Amino acid sequence: MCSSPGATATHCPYCALQCAMTLTVSGPGAASSSASASVEVSGRDFPTNQSGLCRKGWSSAELLKHPDRLREPLLKNDDGEHHPISWDRALGLIRDRVLATRARYGADAVGVFGGGGLTNEKAYLLGKFARLALGTSRIDYNGRFCMSSAAAAGNRAFGLDRGLPFPLTDLGSARTILMLGSNTADTMPPFVQHLQAARDAGGLIVVDPRRSATAELTSEGRGRHLQPAPKTDLALLLGITHVVIMEGLIDEPYVHRRTNGYDDVVRSVAPWWPERVSSVTGVPARLIRETAHRLAEPGGTYILTGRGVEQHANGTDTATAAINLALLLGLPGTPGNGYGTLTGQGNGQGGREHGQKADQLPGYRKITDPAARKHVAGVWGVPESLIPGPGLPAVELLASLGQPGGVRCLFVHGANVAVSAPNASSVLMGLRSLDFLVVCDFFLSETAAEADLVLPVLQWAEEEGTMTNLEGRVLRRRAAVSPPPGARSELWIMARLAELLEAPSSFPDDPETVFTELRAASAGGLADYSGVDYAMLDAELHDAELHRGELHGRELHDGGAGAYWPYPAGSSGTPRLFLDRFAHADGRAVLHPVAPSSSAPFASAPDGVLTLMTGRLLEHYQSGAQTRRVSDLHSTSSEQALQIHPVTAAGLGILDGAEVEVSNERGIVRAVARLSPAVRPDSVFLSFHFPGTGNANVLTSSETDPVSGMPEFKTTQVLVRVHRPAQSEVVGV
Ligand SMILES: Nc1nc2c(c(=O)[nH]1)N[C@H]1C(S)=C(S)[C@@H](COP(=O)(O)OP(=O)(O)OC[C@H]3O[C@@H](n4cnc5c(=O)[nH]c(N)nc54)[C@H](O)[C@@H]3O)O[C@H]1N2
Ligand SMILES: Nc1nc2c(c(=O)[nH]1)N[C@H]1C(S)=C(S)[C@@H](COP(=O)(O)OP(=O)(O)OC[C@H]3O[C@@H](n4cnc5c(=O)[nH]c(N)nc54)[C@H](O)[C@@H]3O)O[C@H]1N2
Ligand code: SF4
Ligand SMILES: [Mo]
């Protein structure tokens, strides 16, 4: 499989780009991949990353040998400290607590919170474990915080949700790319090479209230940066769509042949003429018109969205407006053009397909659909009545912790909600009010620190499995090193617990066997994996390694190879979706009219109140549980920093480097002020990579999108004041 002994072809542990890498084990103990061996990371040629990796990928192996690594189950005693216990005791204790909770409060008092970083096998088995071994409907996952608005919009419009419905390399032929609320230059650096053709054609258009690293890519005639007020993207999109309709730029034959709902959308955008949109968003009317015309030019146009437009209480509608625009221009399913959303977590795509969502069964099936329930019950060998109904979406699930009628015993797999969930102080209170909290992790994350019982699990390079990247392409994750003796795979943990709880179905702990079952469970569903198997995925890796020269510019490089779902048995997968039909019964896409709830100019906030936007930095990943432990990344960015415009800062008496307090009715965050003209004077920016007093989510609210359950992560209103002046200021006084 690998080009040299001790080298393993696999993919990065972090984001959904899933860059291909080779792990080379050397030094003493290399033969047995033991703890004394050292692991080197190198970029591997693959269509998505073309050998490139970002800083996080390059430094990822440091975590394998990290001194903080959990090596045995830890039980919290009455003294509040964690103490090591045996696996037998840990599993026995869980069994007792689950049975006691179920007996006293009913099965729905046991809850599960999963993650979009879990392999397909773990995500699938976790859904089955919750429904059959625990008997609960209360399962959801952190993908609700990530992809739910884009997914809801995609399902509504296309009848199917696959982040990119085309291979990423297709972007290489684009003349125009509109990127809304996505900062890939920081969040997926190797992705930027796919923007080059559009940049060369002067057609990269980035919509972001900040001059992000991605917005910078538009400078020197490479495109345009539109800098609307935060959370006004919906109005902006309606304005662009208005011009497209009124100035005859739509693709009429396409709209006629491939969509429903045109008249309603025409009516809904009529009141959004460019000058009015300009007063709401701050984007000049001229640029709105110019953007509409550029998008309609021939030569290849793509529209892409990211969390900046999706993580709002109106995120589904904003993503829908972007899709409406794309449909009117005839982009989705037209070769050389397209619409897509950039999935975030490593397995953010596969993790949302196989059953860890509250409302879903494997294969992207609806848990309320009788035919879906019958199929999955058949694969699981249980009566349909044993599969519970829909549970609660993540924010509601977390709000129910410790409440009457809520969850009292919670399992967490692959999420650090104490840092990453909105309204984090109330989540922390919820975690603390549980009767029993079990957290599976390989580090003592802030959530694990709250747990009654922590179970040490395997890291990416220690386990086999599959991940589905942002293109819907199934990839092999492969083990390169042995895990520490005390850690266990999550499949093993679920299988042993299922046995102890006398679950009414089998729970294999071998990844390939689990995948075989997943294939059967997904067969016939929207996300059908039945034709994909390990041998095929391994052979592809093998071919890519052996015949790199031959493959160059052909299969792998045109993005055509690889297991893109839907991949029914006997087919060869689906790199490009929607070429002939959309997934609704009549084969047409739905144009769904949407409108902002307010048309007030955004800048009309009360005096002194600023809009806090949150997002990511290049160096850190998510809650930071992993990357804050990597020395190089931590030394570059070791504390929470507030990006604030120099004019705003001057008005508040804040100098660069001062310690500031950012506050609202939910709490206070401490940060170091970093003066930057990249943010608008009406807004400030924090990352959510830091815990404790630097945790931005202390300020975010539990308000959610009514369709998707996505929290309003991207904006909240805050006040900013100096806590401690900058060093130079103190000296100067
Ligand atoms: N370095 C790094 N990379 C990552 C991750 C990470 O944590 N760190 N996480 C991965 C995951 S899970 C995800 S989901 C992706 C996310 O990837 P992105 O979506 O690229 O990341 P964000 O930083 O959350 O948001 C993108 C941009 O949205 C802008 N924004 C904020 N509010 C608004 C608004 O109202 N309108 C518009 N138009 N823009 C707005 C922000 O200024 C920001 O530049 O990244 C993945 N890659
Ligand atoms: N304010 C604000 N908040 C946000 C966002 C934002 O933009 N702004 N973005 C949201 C988004 S898009 C996302 S995706 C979430 C992500 O937020 P989190 O759910 O906190 O994501 P991570 O930090 O990746 O947490 C994963 C945890 O699981 C562990 N882990 C990793 N792999 C595995 C595994 O295979 N098994 C187990 N058991 N553990 C594992 C890691 O060590 C870590 O502790 O945050 C959301 N929160
Ligand atoms: S871009 Fe994402 S997948 Fe690629 S190396 Fe960086 S974190 Fe890993
Ligand atoms: Mo995400």
Automatic annotation (TrEMBL):
It comes from Arthrobacter vasquezii. Keywords: 4Fe-4S, Iron, Iron-sulfur, Metal-binding. Pfam families: Molybdop_Fe4S4 (PF04879), Molybdopterin (PF00384), Molydop_binding (PF01568). It comes from the Bacteria. InterPro entries: Asp_de-COase-like_dom_sf (IPR009010), MoPterin_dinucl-bd_dom (IPR006657), Mopterin_OxRdtase (IPR006656), Mopterin_OxRdtase_4Fe-4S_dom (IPR006963), Mopterin_OxRdtase_prok_CS (IPR006655), Prok_molybdopt-oxidoreductase (IPR050123). Residues 5-66 form the 4Fe-4S Mo/W bis-MGD-type domain. SMART domains: Molybdop_Fe4S4. Transmembrane segments: none annotated. This is Molybdopterin oxidoreductase family protein.
